[in-house]
Amino acid sequence: MSDHGSYGRAEPLGEATNALLDPITLAPGARALDLGCGPGGALERLSELVGPSGRVVGVDQDGASLGAARALVRERELGNVEIVQADARDTRLPRSSFDLVHVRMLLVNLPAPEQAVDEIARLVKPGGWVAAMEPDHALRVCYPPHPALQRLCALLAAAYRHDGADGYVGRRLPYLLSTAGMASIAVEARAPIYPPGHPQRTLCPDLVRSLRSRILRWGLIEARELDRLDHAARLHLDDPGTLSVPVTYFAAWARKPSWAA
Fold it and tell me: pLDDT tens digit string along 191-217?
């Protein structure tokens, strides 16, 4: 689902990105890869992490995301960051060339996400780090519940299935990393509660809205009914009395064994 690039891969996930990268220390001159960098929400943090003598490569396949990332690099004067267009499942970058591979909200958009994880394992150096964060849409809470929001979330799950992607990929992160040969795997689940007005609070309606044309083309719902559900769900989420945990994020860290090729 390549056009899910707006799915939280930029801000407002800055705090989550910092928490993902805080445990990692890199030596001066280190190389880091932001695989599926999107508009570039993690590039500045990675640039700081590797230092002036290090190098960051941001990879994405989407032209609009690449343009936004390059504009960010120019605006923030990130002289140690390079943006490259490539498929995350086959980047053609040199094997074992990065001390850290960072991936955030990418695997959820891909059919066969294990292909991208295998590419991550190929690209990271022996002894190097992998830091990943992916969502799990099945682990959410809205109270009081509302039928319009429940229907939209079911539509979102159907859209992922229709595209061959996995909206529950977050829970699979440790398994995917392990089967790709990674070791020392640690994982955390984070389920933030978002207040009214926070951009993540309406994550499900926003994602459904971004997929509107395809959902209608697939015949999953009629346009008028979709509009009614969207309006009702947003009204419910605007209510300060509604508790909203729209998604659970899984963060995972792993190392490539020092003896691995």
Answer: 999 999 999 999 999 999 999 999 999
Q: Is residue 237 a part of any domain in this protein?
A: yes
Sorted by sequence, the CB contacts under 8 Å of residue 43 that are 6+ apart come out as: 34, 37, 56, 58, 69, 72, 73, 78, 81
Supply the range of the domain harboring residue 49: 2-255
Q: What percent of the chain has pLDDT over 90?
A: 88
Q: Report residue 16's pLDDT band, with 50, 70 and 90 as the boundaries.
A: confident
> 240, 143 in Cβ contact below 8 A?
no
3-state secondary structure of 75: helix
Cβ 162 vs Cβ 156: under 8 Å: no
Residue 261 lies in a domain: no
In a domain, 260, yes or no: no
Here the tokens at position 2 are 């390549």
Q: What's the pTM?
A: 0.90
Cα distances (Å, whole numbers) of residue 236 to 128, 138, 199, 201: 45, 20, 15, 11
In a domain, 98, yes or no: yes
Domains in the chain: how many in total? 1
* Alpha carbon distance 46, 119 (integer Å): 20
Residue found under tokens 């689902």 = 1
CATH number of the domain residue 83 falls in? 3.40.50.150
Q: Which of 38, 28, 4, 61 is nearest to 208 (CA)?
A: 4
Rounded CA-CA distance 195/193 in Å is 7
